[in-house]
Design a protein that fits this description.
The chain has 519 residues and is an alpha/beta fold. It has 22 helices and nine strands. It has three domains: 2-126, Rossmann fold, CATH 3.40.50.620; 147-197 and 231-331, Serine Threonine Protein Phosphatase 5, Tetratricopeptide repeat, CATH 1.25.40; 349-518, Orthogonal Bundle (DNA Cyclobutane Dipyrimidine Photolyase, subunit A, domain 3). The protein has a five-stranded parallel sheet, sandwiched between helices. The chain has a two-stranded antiparallel ribbon with strand order 6-7. Strand 4, helix 5 and strand 5 form a beta-alpha-beta unit. The structure holds flavin-adenine dinucleotide (FAD) and iron/sulfur cluster (SF4).
């Protein structure tokens, strides 16, 4: 008799209670699946990184004395999908009990739950034991359709898990230090930006396999994969972040630059960001481990790391990451259909080759194609904002984000994309649409000074396209947005413009919308 335990590609959690004991009758299955490589068009480095991390995890389990079946695309090609493969394995290994961990994606969870329910042998589903909140607890915090707010949730989480608290009060007497953070990066700041810690994991064999099976991908491949693919590498990256990046994490969290690399170094894409999202989302490290380690560094830094830096970082993990997961599960599957602004335009072709004259978009997309990575503000305020104010169909926006980023898994990608950045959920995730003109980009980056367009102009051929597009977007959705007090000034400013100017702006916006492929 055999017990079969399935480990999915984003369930590489070595601390899971499954692995505490060794059982000769337990067979762990880790499988490269065609369905997972193809449910969307992934970045070449993303599939390679997942397969490499799965392979490392399988090796680690074998070394720890577990029985493991690691299947490659070659081994699984003949099976139509995951249930089909599992059915064959249950038979081949004479399995009498099937166990799996709850999948974090709705699509997969449904598939596995249905499969388990249809079995004649017994089956058990386990928690992944990764997040702060267990699966069953999510409904205590999140309800379908309700407009949830991060700040409220974040405070509850800090209190509940006693993270940086002094009794009932937040450390330093303040929950939020955003005012002090989020600065623009100036040339004088360039010298202290740390070089990114990059790994170099040979994925030639994996990449050949991906090509042999005709899996279509986007982005540039790099045979020396620079992402962490084991728990050990994930911990090294975490230590590196704490030692060299945490000190200015909050300060330059929103900064963007194209000029830093003129110094001959390649670090403008990473700045002070942790790049831990892949390690976290594959569960090679846990959010608790990341938060505890960062706080330990903060506490022993003798004041070098300031409170706003650590608070800004902890908020992302204990706050945002857990928050979007809660929103996802409370609202799926309906969430995937939401389109509150009825956006229906198509993504311009240059989202796949970065060939646009708009410098900000050129850099954000070029970097995404090269590294399968962009930091939060590039995703939200550059590519995301562009799609928002040009009314791109959220279906297409979701698909692009789900494919291109190394860390993109639907539970975290979708609420960020469809919700936070596209406002397609009508305000479940965020209280307002993150729409911006060129002014915001100019404030947070040095992109504009080298751009073909002029950020201070709204009309005319060389005017920054984002300016007219922003106004058109706000005016179009005025009935929906004008109730929000945060938009009062915006509409007052619009009203102040002479009618002729208003018309010229809207005309320019319409022209741009018709020529999105050529701007
Ligand atoms: P850091 O800036 O170093 O932040 C530390 C960690 O905080 C991250 O690793 C991540 O785990 C967490 N975090 C920060 N912001 C968020 C957030 N808004 N939601 C959830 N976790 C957060 N993140 C993903 O992991 N997968 C995605 O597919 C994804 N898609 C996104 C799409 C859009 C449109 C936007 C605006 C954001 C998206 N994010 C996504 C959130 C965020 O941009 C990335 O987590 C972050 O850029 C990853 O880089 P990092 O590890 O260097 O993050
Ligand atoms: Fe982007 Fe406009 Fe600035 Fe060009 S001028 S970089 S398009 S914000």
């Amino acid at each position: 008799a055999t017990r079969l335990r399935l480990v999915l590609g984003d369930q590489l959690n070595a601390s899971h209670s499954w692995f505490r004991e060794k059982h000769d009758d337990t067979l762990y299955v880790i499988a490269e699946l065609h369905q997972e490589a193809q449910y969307t068009q992934h970045h070449a480095q993303k599939i390679s990184a997942f397969f490499a991390a799965m392979s490392q995890f399988a090796d680690a389990l074998v070394q720890a004395g577990h029985r493991v079946l690691h299947l490659t695309l070659d081994d699984t090609a003949q099976y139509q999908d995951l249930p089909d493969l599992l059915t064959a394995l249950l038979q081949r290994y004479n399995v009498n009990h099937f166990e799996y961990q709850l999948a974090d994606e709705y699509r997969l969870r449904n598939q596995l739950d249905n499969f388990a329910q249809g079995l004649t042998i017994s089956a058990t589903a386990y928690e992944t034991e990764h997040f702060y909140l267990t699966d069953t607890e999510l409904s205590d915090y999140f309800q379908q359709g309700k407009r949830h707010r991060l700040e409220h949730f974040y405070r509850k989480m800090r209190l509940r898990f006693n993270v940086m608290m002094e009794g009932e009060e937040p450390l330093g007497g303040q929950w939020n230090f955003d005012q002090q953070n989020r600065q623009k990066m100036k040339p004088k700041d360039f010298v202290s930006v740390p070089d990114p810690l990059l790994f170099s994991h040979d994925v030639t064999a994996i990449w050949e396999r991906i090509q042999r099976h005709n899996i279509s991908t986007i982005g540039e491949m790099n045979m020396a994969l620079l992402w962490p693919v084991s728990r050990k590498q994930s911990l090294i990256l975490l230590e590196y972040f704490c030692r060299f990046c945490l000190v200015r994490f909050g300060q330059f969290q929103d900064a963007m630059t194209a000029k830093l690399d003129t110094l001959g170094e390649s670090k403008q894409w990473t700045l002070y960001h942790s790049r831990l999202s892949f390690a976290l989302n594959t569960k090679m490290i846990s959010p608790q481990c990341v938060v505890d380690t960062a706080i330990k560094y903060y506490a022993s830094s003798q004041g070098q790391i300031s409170l706003p830096q650590i608070e800004g970082f902890v908020r992302q993990i204990i706050g945002w990451r857990e928050f979007v997961r809660g929103v996802y599960w409370a609202n799926m599957p309906d969430y995937a259909q939401l389109n509150a602004l009825n956006a229906d335009n198509s993504l311009p072709d240059w989202f796949w080759n970065a060939k646009t004259k708009m410098n900000c978009l050129h850099y954000a997309i070029k970097q995404s194609l090269e590294y399968a990575y962009a930091h939060h503000i590039q995703r939200l305020m550059v590519t995301g904002n562009f799609c928002l104010i040009t009314g791109i169909d959220p279906e297409q926006v979701d698909e692009w984000y789900l494919g291109i980023y190394i860390d993109a898994i639907e539970w975290v990608e979708m609420p960020n994309t469809r919700g936070m950045s596209q406002f397609a959920d009508g305000g479940i995730v965020g209280s307002k649409a993150y729409a911006a003109s060129g002014n915001y980009i100019n404030k947070m980056s040095d992109y504009c000074s080298d751009c073909a367009y002029n950020v201070s102009k709204t009309i005319g051929d060389n005017a920054c396209p984002l300016n007219a597009l922003y106004w058109r977007f706000m005016v179009k959705h005025q009935p929906l947005f004008s109730n929000n007090p945060r938009n009062k000034m915006v509409f007052a400013n619009w009203q102040k413009k002479p009618i002729d100017d208003q018309q010229a702006i809207l005309k320019r916006a319409e022209y741009l919308l018709k020529h999105l492929n050529n701007i």
